[in-house]
Amino acid sequence: MSALLWLLIPLFVGIAAGMWAWSTGRRNPGPPDLDTWEDLDRYQRLRTVLSGKEHCKTA
């Protein structure tokens, strides 16, 4: 009987972890990001700035 009690510990831990994960989940996710072109433009500007020949040189 004591061996079966040891099997209850992982069971209760698993149930508690599942309840914790369920309770911390996002209930109402936000709308999808529909501004893909602006993100792409921002990424391209960042690449342009970082690929410039003139970089700040340290020490």
TL;DR?
This protein is an all-alpha fold and 59 residues long. It has helices spanning 2-24, 36-50.
Key features?
mainly alpha, 59 residues, 2 helices
Description of the molecule:
- The protein is mainly alpha-helical.
- The mean pLDDT is 80.
- It starts with a helix and ends in a 9-residue tail after the last helix.
- The protein is built from 2 helices and no strands.
Write the layout of secondary structure elements.
Blueprint: H1 2-24, H2 36-50
The sequence of SSEs as H and E is HH
Shape: elongated
Content of β-strand? under 5%
Number of helices: 2
Distance between the termini: 71 Å
Supply Rg: 26 Å
Kindly report the average pLDDT value. 80
Structural class computed from helices and strand pairing: mainly alpha
The biggest beta sheet, please? none
Number of strands: 0
Unreliable stretches (pLDDT < 50, length at least 5) are none
Q: Helix coverage percent of residues?
A: 55-70%
